[in-house]
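The methods section describes the discrete structure representation at length, but only in general terms. Since the whole study asks how a given chain folds, the encoding of that fold should be made plain. An entry of this sort, consisting of the sequence and the corresponding backbone structure tokens, reads as follows:

. . .
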Amino acid sequence: MIKLLKANLARLWKNKVFWLGFLVLNVFCIIQKIGLIQDTIEVHYLEETFWIQAYVLGIILSVFISLFIGAEYEYGTIRNKIISGYDRSEIYLANIFACIIAGWIMCMGCLISSLLVGVPFLGFFHTELSEILLQGICVFALSAAYTAIYCFFAMLIHNRTITAIACIMLSFLLLFSGTVVSNRLDESEYYYIPDASLGIGEIDDGSNSEWIRNPDYLEGTERRIYEIVFEVIPGGQSLQLSGMLNEHTSYTEMFSASLAWIIISCGCGVLLFCRKDLR
């Protein structure tokens, strides 16, 4: 498998889609940091949206992985590897490891870019470094989880175009599902109904106003279920780790969820790929 991995990495360095994704992700991070620097109304710190790449990481990886692995089917590389005597599980794992490394390189590039642009203008971190480190570990684990999911489809669908469409649509679906769950969790418990009898310019003293309970507010077991789903789905993790939300859940739970995605996707992927009829 080492030879296969080396061959994949050699192909990775020459892959234009990989470097384009690397560039887009880094530019996205730099633009976000410049936005904080130019904001003269509020005081911002380096740790704000420091891992912003997590927000679009799933989309970038979906494009890269579908085209990178899809090329192996298009040019008959996978068939040639099998004919050469390589085990199917080795081929699968070599591909997924190469793509995981690619995702981590993108994340490292964004980390360096954020430091180079942010530190001179925003200073160093004002929060504990352990907090930043835990976030970083979860981001890298999330990157590997996205990779495992997309590789599952890319290795089982032999048509490169269909693979690209499926992975890209899935990336947006995951992010959208995270947004939907987030909006449900953010529902206010009460609605404020102002006094309708007030005239123009009159101040509402609250005497005739009322608070109405929101029927869509989640509580109890139902709320806990939504919280678990928000931590488990990659789209929910992307929103939390990117800093798009002010609150975060347990890093341990997010890391465990990413690890579960990796194990399940790889396990099922290897089993199905070993039985796949390569036409």
